[in-house]
Amino acid sequence: WVCKITSCWQSVVGEMCMEVQWYYRPEDTHVGRTDLHEKNEVFENPESEEQDIHCIEGPCRVIELWSARKPSIEELQSHDVDGIRQYICRFHYNSLKRSFT
Fold it and tell me: Which residues, including other chains, have CB under 8 Å from residue 79's CB and lie 6 or more apart?
């Protein structure tokens, strides 16, 4: 699973918690994976939820193509940079409405 950590805090019982915003892989959408999707493509989703911080498996990088910083061709073609898994995100996906924007 791929997510963006939007906030972190310590609970009243001392556990570290976080709020995450999920990214969907093409095969996890109602459309499924097609030839139009990049191998390392994910879709940003507006849904968020609280998770225990210990569920983190490791870092990754999501390049959002609508951001002000334009990635290089090498960045877009690479799936792994310095041992960190890399994904590209071109669209938003709303799983409740089953729509892309």
Answer: 39, 40, 85, 86
